[in-house]
TrEMBL record, chain A:
<dbReference type="InterPro" id="IPR002888">
    <property type="entry name" value="2Fe-2S-bd"/>
</dbReference>
<dbReference type="InterPro" id="IPR036884">
    <property type="entry name" value="2Fe-2S-bd_dom_sf"/>
</dbReference>
<keyword id="KW-0560">Oxidoreductase</keyword>
<dbReference type="InterPro" id="IPR051452">
    <property type="entry name" value="Diverse_Oxidoreductases"/>
</dbReference>
<dbReference type="InterPro" id="IPR012675">
    <property type="entry name" value="Beta-grasp_dom_sf"/>
</dbReference>
<keyword id="KW-0479">Metal-binding</keyword>
<dbReference type="InterPro" id="IPR036010">
    <property type="entry name" value="2Fe-2S_ferredoxin-like_sf"/>
</dbReference>
<feature type="domain" description="2Fe-2S ferredoxin-type">
    <location>
        <begin position="4"/>
        <end position="80"/>
    </location>
</feature>
<keyword id="KW-0408">Iron</keyword>
TrEMBL record, chain B:
<dbReference type="InterPro" id="IPR016169">
    <property type="entry name" value="FAD-bd_PCMH_sub2"/>
</dbReference>
<dbReference type="Pfam" id="PF03450">
    <property type="entry name" value="CO_deh_flav_C"/>
</dbReference>
<dbReference type="InterPro" id="IPR005107">
    <property type="entry name" value="CO_DH_flav_C"/>
</dbReference>
<keyword id="KW-0274">FAD</keyword>
<dbReference type="InterPro" id="IPR036683">
    <property type="entry name" value="CO_DH_flav_C_dom_sf"/>
</dbReference>
<feature type="domain" description="FAD-binding PCMH-type">
    <location>
        <begin position="1"/>
        <end position="177"/>
    </location>
</feature>
<keyword id="KW-0560">Oxidoreductase</keyword>
<dbReference type="InterPro" id="IPR016166">
    <property type="entry name" value="FAD-bd_PCMH"/>
</dbReference>
<keyword id="KW-0285">Flavoprotein</keyword>
Length: 163, 284
């Protein structure tokens, strides 16, 4: 089967590489582009550890073929913040102990990033519903919800101050 | 899990997609959101030589509402259904159902067309479309035709759609009145153990029209004419609802699987049908 030239934008930078259409986006990101933030958890689109932002939507990158992502604009956790320059959400997860083993965290934060744009001022219940596609086996979710609520409050305060 | 190799096609109009299906025959298959098909390919339960991605065909997008007539493009995602304010006013049962499908990431990608055309008995939209008496618009090499949702499903994964046809849109009349989609599932993201779609119209104190359909309680979605008939003319009191539930249960054929034995599913079905009727009536 023929390989195809895949062109996509990842974390703001253009990437171009030769792939088989059947390669999954999560493996392209991890193994070809060296972005190991998106994790392979269940590999069956349940757990959400592989969540990335694709064209303004949260998607599970284990269930997207590389070919389907041709032309897409993809953001991974690496595009949201960096050591020494954590995003508001990353900082909130740290402060509120929203992680223990950390395996689900990149997917959690990438999903929360999109969720807070869909709903900048959520109730706790809305956070839980909006994060329902991400599983965590450690925290019991309580502190993840707290972290997202705290990040929402801070982002809203920053927005109001700017207006 | 890596699927078998395939060639990828991304046509930008329907004619090109149909031509690709013609060219490659039963080696070709269309993909919409892919959240049923990609897992099947990863498990190698589906092997497809040519994958025809419908994402770039603009004609398959969009929701149009003209009075009571609703037309939804096959490639409209569940998330787009949920976010459409005009649709939520015209037919709020669509939003109520879509919110109970899978999880946010899957709804962002999964489409109504894929949900109804796949023929998986666990999909939620087929029963809803039967409840609403929707029509599916199919386009093939010999032109287009419409098939009623109530006549579309033949067996699990077997539908009236021919291999060289593409589902392009879904049409239905906004039902008015009360509505409910009630779903019992083990956890968020799961398919239904049992689910029911109900619409009810009220005239004075009596029910003037009712439609009841069910998900995952047979190898196809089940529309129960008898259940609707049991409600029409009644005041939807407990005995009337009981008769409708009994009629609906007579029309299903659940089988045992990892969601439980058939008798448990029958019990769960009775509960969700009752709840759906009561909630729809309370909103009528």
């Amino acid at each position: 089967m023929a390989k195809m030239q895949l062109r996509l934008t990842v974390n703001g930078e253009a990437a171009e590489l030769l792939v088989e259409p059947r390669e999954l986006l999560v493996y392209v990101l991890r193994e070809r582009l060296g972005l190991t933030g998106p994790h392979v958890g269940c590999d069956t689109s349940h757990c959400g550890a592989c969540t990335v932002d694709m064209d303004g939507r949260s998607v599970k990158s284990c269930t997207v073929f590389a070919a389907q992502a041709d032309g897409a604009d993809v953001t991974t956790i690496e595009g949201l913040g960096a050591p020494g320059g954590l995003s508001v959400l990353q900082q909130a997860f740290r402060e509120h102990h929203g992680l223990q083993c950390g395996f689900c965290t990149p997917g959690m934060i990438t999903r929360a990033h999109r969720f807070l744009q869909e709903n900048p001022n959520p109730s706790e219940e809305e956070v839980r519903f909006g994060m329902a596609g991400n599983l965590c086996r450690c925290t019991g979710y309580q502190n993840i919800v707290k972290a997202i609520m705290a990040a929402a409050a801070e982002l809203n305060a920053v927005r109001e101050a700017a207006e | 899990m890596i699927p078998a190799a395939f060639e990828y096609h991304r046509p930008t109009d329907l004619q090109a997609a149909l031509a690709t299906l013609q060219e490659f025959g039963d080696e070709a298959r269309v993909i919409a959101g892919g959240h049923s098909l990609v897992p099947m390919m990863k498990l190698r339960m589906a092997t497809i030589g040519h994958l025809v991605d419908l994402r770039a065909i603009a004609d398959l997008k969009g929701i149009r509402i003209d009075g009571a007539a609703v037309r939804i493009g096959a490639m409209v995602t569940q998330q787009e259904l949920i976010a459409d304010a005009a649709l939520a006013r015209a037919a709020p049962i669509l939003r109520e159902t879509a919110l109970q499908i899978a999880d946010p990431q899957v709804r962002a990608v999964g489409t109504i067309g894929g949900n109804v055309a796949n023929g998986d008995p666990g999909n939620d939209m087929p029963a809803l479309m039967q409840c609403l008496d929707a029509s599916f618009s199919l386009v093939g090499p010999n032109g287009s035709r419409a098939v009623k949702a109530r006549e579309f499903y033949e067996a699990a994964y077997v539908t009236a759609r021919e291999d060289d046809e593409i589902l392009v849109a879904i049409d239905f009349a906004a039902p008015g009145g009360g509505y409910a989609y009630e779903k019992q599932k083990r956890k968020i993201g799961d398919y239904a153990t049992a689910a029911a779609a109900v619409t009810i119209r009220k005239d004075g104190t009596a029910c003037s029209a009712a439609s009841v359909a069910m998900t995952n309680l047979s190898d196809v979605p089940v529309w129960s004419k008898a259940a609707g008939d049991a409600l029409v003319g009644s005041a939807c009191g407990p005995a009337d609802v009981g008769r409708a539930v009994a009629a609906a249960l007579a029309d299903i054929a659940p089988t045992a699987d990892n969601r439980g034995p058939a008798e448990f599913k029958r019990h769960a079905a009775g509960v969700v049908i009752r709840r759906a009727i009561e909630r729809a009536w309370s909103r009528a």
